Fold:
Amino acid sequence: MAAPAKKLGMFDKMLRVVARIPRGRVATYGDVAYAAGFPGAARQVAWALHASHGLPWQRVIGSNGKILLGGHHGLEQRLRLEHEGVRFIGLRVDLKQHRCPFQILRPAKQKPAAKKRRAAGR
DNA sequence: AAGATGACGCCCG
DNA sequence: CCGGGCGCCATCT
Structure:
């Protein structure tokens, strides 16, 4: 397997994005790839998760809200999500309600919101 | 180096 | 809703 790769730049960023998905929320593979700066590399997100550990992998699902992972792992994913409050409609997650906004997925480029002007006259 | 694989995504019938 | 086909891209054989 795999190659331990030294060149982990790409998935390191992807994993960083996955780590930012809050509890009770989900993101699609495409969302993660895009937020990480690799639009179109949704498949690599799955790879990145394989090589990861300790991340909320269950929060990454298909673009249609379905769990794509098969076998008992897929079942575990569903149980974990439901356990953290994610609601399903049939076989898919209610994305309207649980999809994580890019703003949160994005690398924390967030600047300290303007330094707040002081109270001058407010 | 070429072909096959995969926890993908999107379009079409 | 489901299946089939094509595009995508890093890794594996």
Summary: Chain A has a mean pLDDT of 86. The beta strands of chain A are 27-28, 60-61, 88-89, 92-93. DSSP finds six helices and four strands in chain A. Residues 28-30, 33, 40-47, 49-50, 57, 60-64, 67-70, 73-74, 77 of chain A lie near DNA strand B (CB under 10 Å from a C1').
